[in-house]
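PROTEIN DESIGN WORKSHEET
SECTION A - STRUCTURE
LENGTH: 289
C-ALPHA CELLS:
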C-alpha cells in the first residue's frame, strides 16, 4: 500500500501555527503588515495532542540541530520570551535581498499542485523521489543540490518530522549566477513529539509502490530504503553512505547535549531524545549490512 494513503485528513502543526510578520526598527522588532523581515511563531492557540507549549522550543532546537550538528543551511533564528511569559520562535526571512523580494517557489508550485487541482491533500500526495525529479528539471547544479535535498529528507526522518511536505521545500535564484538552488531549510520540527500517531514521513519515498525488502521485513523505513532513494537520485553510493553516516553513527553526544540544554519541558526533552534514538536504530538497518 502506498505510504501516502496514511496521511489523509491528518493534523498538521503548520496548520495550527499563527505567524506574525515583524520588522526591525531602531533595534527593536515590531509587528508590521508590510515588508516584514522576520516571522514570529508563538505557541499555537489551537490544541495539539501533546506538549503544545513546547512547539516554539521544538522548532528552535530542531533548526539548531540541523545547522550546527548536520551542516544543513538554515536562516538565522532564535527564541524570545513574550510579554505573557511564553516562548516565541523568530526566524529571519530569506526571500528578501537588499530590501527586494526574491522569487521563491515551493515544490507544490513547481509541480503545479493546489487544492483546486489535487484536493485538500495536495501537498502530501507526492513522493520524495518526485521532488528529486523536479529538482533535476530546474537545477543546473543538480548533483550538488540533490545531495542537499537528500540530507534534509534523512534529517526529517531522523528527527521525527512527519510534516516535510511539498510546501516545505523551495527553490530560489542565486544572487551571483541566477541559478535555481534550494533555499535554506525551514519549518523543521520534530512533529511526532506533539502528534504521536503521525506518519513517519509526510511523503512516500518512492514515486511508485516500491517497497524495499527491509521495509517489508520491518514495516518502517530503514537505512536500506534511503540508500535506494539515493540511488534513484543518482547519488553515487559512496556519497550516499557518507551523507547517511552522521545520522547512523554520528555525534550522538552532541545531539543529546543540545536536547538537554534546550527550552523544551523535561517530558518533551525525554520524548524528543527517545524518538531520535529510535530513528537512529531504524537507519542502521541496511546501512551496516
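SECTION B - SEQUENCE
RESIDUE ASSIGNMENT:
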Amino acid at each position: 500500500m502506498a505510504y501516502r494513503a496514511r496521511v489523509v485528513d491528518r493534523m498538521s502543526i503548520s496548520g495550527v501555527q499563527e505567524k506574525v510578520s515583524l520588522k526591525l526598527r531602531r533595534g527593536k522588532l515590531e509587528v508590521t503588515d508590510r515588508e516584514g523581515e522576520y516571522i514570529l511563531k508563538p505557541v499555537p492557540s489551537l490544541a495539539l495532542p501533546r506538549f503544545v507549549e513546547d512547539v516554539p522550543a521544538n522548532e528552535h532546537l530542531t533548526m539548531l540541530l540541523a545547522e550546527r550538528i548536520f551542516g544543513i543551511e538554515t536562516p538565522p533564528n532564535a527564541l524570545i520570551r513574550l510579554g505573557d511569559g511564553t516562548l516565541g520562535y523568530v526566524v529571519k526571512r530569506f526571500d528578501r535581498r537588499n530590501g527586494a523580494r526574491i522569487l521563491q517557489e515551493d515544490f507544490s508550485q513547481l509541480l503545479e499542485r493546489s487544492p483546486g487541482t489535487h484536493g485538500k491533500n495536495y501537498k502530501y500526495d507526492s513522493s520524495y523521489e518526485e521532488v528529486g525529479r523536479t529538482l533535476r528539471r530546474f537545477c543546473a547544479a543538480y548533483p550538488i543540490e540533490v545531495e542537499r535535498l537528500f540530507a534534509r529528507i534523512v534529517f526529517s526522518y531522523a528527527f521525527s518530522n512527519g510534516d516535510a511536505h511539498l510546501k516545505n521545500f523551495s527553490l530560489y535564484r542565486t544572487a551571483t549566477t541566477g541559478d535555481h538552488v534550494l533555499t535554506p531549510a525551514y519549518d523543521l520540527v520534530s512533529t511526532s513529539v506533539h502528534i504521536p500517531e503521525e506518519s513517519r514521513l509526510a511523503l512516500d519515498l518512492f514515486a511508485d509502490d516500491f517497497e524495499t525488502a527491509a521495509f517489508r521485513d520491518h514495516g518502517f523505513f530503514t537505512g536500506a530504503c534511503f540508500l535506494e532513494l539515493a540511488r534513484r537520485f543518482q547519488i553515487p553510493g559512496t556519497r550516499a553512505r557518507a551523507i547517511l553516516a552522521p545520522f547512523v553513527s554520528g555525534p550522538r553526544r552532541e545531539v543529546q547535549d543540545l536536547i538537554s540544554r534546550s527550552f523544551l519541558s523535561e517530558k518533551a526533552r525525554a520524548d524528543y531524545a527517545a524518538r531520535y534514538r529510535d530513528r537512529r536504530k531504524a537507519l542502521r538497518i541496511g546501512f551496516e549490512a
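SECTION C - NOTES
Residues 1-8 have pLDDT under 50 and may be disordered.
The radius of gyration is 19 Å.
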